Amino acid sequence: MSRYTLGVSALLAFTLACGKSVVEPDPDPTFTLTPSDTVSVVETTVFVTIRAENVLSCSYPGGTYTADANGRINAAFGVTVSAIGPNRIPVSCPGTNGKTVTKEVSVRGIARVKATLTASPDTVYVGDWTTLTRSCEGAASATRSWEPNAAPMGGSDEVTITALGPTTFSYACTGEGGSDVATVDVVGEPVPPLDARAFRNRPGEIPGSHLTQFVYMLSADMTDRGHDWNGQMEAVINAALVFFAGKTGRVPAVDNFGGRPDILFIRSTKTHAGLLPPGTGVISNLLDELSLRIGGLREKKKYIIFYPPLIPLGFGGSAVQGGAGGAVYSSLPEWDNALIDPLGNVPPFFPYGYTWIHEWGHVLGAVSSTAPNFIGGGHTPNPDIMCGAPATDCDPSQAEVDPDGNDWFGDNVGAGIFNAKLSLWIIPAPPELVTMGRLQAQTLRDSPVTIELRKFREELVFPPKRPQ
Ligand SMILES: [Zn+2]
Asked: What is the 286 CA–ligand 1 centroid distance (Å)?
């Protein structure tokens, strides 16, 4: 019996030992992860709380917590939500029993709402308009403080400023990530009287219309000869309009105020050398300066700048082909720097009327290199008004506008070749202007004008290609 009893005891002891290994093993690691938010704006921080048992440590993105003596962790770490959509945050905890458990939480990143609103220009004469450009990021809806208040998420509006002083515009964007409001002030200034100088565009035109605007620009160190108000620029402008009307029955649509060209006066704070540093171009610098001074060039305007350097440009012009503007270097020592012949022998078409209309042709886009009579440099041969280098025999007094109508203005211009006749910056000419133009051309045929002028210089540049 005793041997049997002993045998049972040994078996029982063995069974107990085996039972202990099954029922009370060294336990597996367990933990929970609790994020402070399951949805969060990107670039913000979410905190994740770890509660773990039976662990040695827990590793999370950016760090590791070590367990206390009891194998526990109760801590929180911060993580920046970087992506829109799911952001997976893994945590891995090796247990005291040698097993490692990995879990993750997911936080959905949503876009930050951002509203943007700009005005160009941000200062105008009362009655003129500005362009308000708006956009939203991360938003589902938007409202604006001006009419029409049915805002798509982005775009621009031409808004007329009716009040003196600042007018505040606001644009609000709302989305899952909250709201944002952008505001901009546009300052209205009093319109100068008709016979005073204009430093900005004077009101009156249809917002966004396609117009050519003239500018009298001086560097800080140039003598102001008052050509914007003394009638000389006006005479030169009108002479070329008459020429163009007589040849084509059409005219450039000129930005007028009170029945006269609305000429801007721009006095740069830079010297001539500062405005046109040696080695840089002319027209791009002048357009940049103009843009700076008037708070941005208008998209649908072409600018013709009269800029009177004696040195080193000489007499000439420049243009951005198919771009925002061109310039006329208006300075003839022979005429004491007047724009029209002080003796009255030479009609005002020469040389500056001829020059601005030539540069204006470039600004519209003339002459395509694929035009039949293209000779290089955006030019055609004499007697076209677009005659220029490398031709050396251009004769302004016999000038025509694309005599065959196949190079840059007419009905015979081929497909793919720039045709100014289709340009939005040209309108039908008043009949009396056409009559005057034909008379002017006849007078010139009867008694051609030859004038001795310094060699004409021209710079033609191409606008930067827009990203496709
Ligand atoms: Zn040219």
From this structure: 17
Ligand 1 centroid to residue 358 C-alpha, Å: 6
Torsional sign, CA 269, 292, 161, 184: negative
- Regions of the chain short of the pLDDT cut 50: 1-21, 467-468
Burial class (CB in 10 A: 0-12, 13-18, 19+), 148: exposed
Contacts of 371 (CB under 8 A, 6+ apart): 380, 406, 407, 408, 413, 417, 418
Q: For the chain, percent helix, then strand, then coil, each to nearest 5?
A: 20, 35, 45
pTM over 0.90: no
C-alpha 259 – ligand 1 centre gap (Å): 30
316 CA distance to ligand 1 middle (Å): 9
Ligand 1 centroid to residue 320 C-alpha, Å: 10
CATH number, span 114-189: 2.60.40.10
Q: What does the domain layout of the chain look like in residue ranges?
A: 25-109, 114-189, 211-461
CB-side neighbour CA atoms (13 Å) of 252: 29
Distance CA 155, CA 135 (A): 7
Per-residue pLDDT of 255-306, as tens digits, reads 999 999 999 999 999 999 999 998 888 999 999 999 999 999 999 999 999 9
Q: With the C-alpha atoms ordered 394, 395, 396, 401, is the resulting torsion angle positive or negative?
A: negative
CA of 158 to the centre of ligand 1 (A): 33
pLDDT digits (tens, 9 = 90+) for 369-416: 999 999 999 999 999 999 999 998 888 888 999 999 999 999 999 999
62: phi then psi, degrees, rounded to nearest 5: 105, 0
Q: How far apart are CA 124 and CA 101, in angstroms?
A: 67
Let me know: does 104 contact 88? Beta carbons within 8 Å: yes
Q: In whole angstroms, give the CA distance from residue 315 to residue 338.
A: 12
Domain covering 211-461, topology: Collagenase (Catalytic Domain) (3.40.390)
Superfamily of domain 25-109: SoxY domain (2.60.40.2470)
| Spatial CB neighbours of 218, under 8 Å, sequence gap ≥ 6 | 224, 266, 267, 268, 307, 308
DSSP state of 395: -
Instruction: Decide: 440 and 298 in contact? Cβ < 8 Å.
Output: no
Question: Ligand 1: distance of its center to the CA of 460 in Å?
Answer: 7
Q: Which amino acid is at 199?
A: F
Pairing mode, strands 100-110 and 154-160: unpaired
CA of 395 to the centre of ligand 1 (A): 13
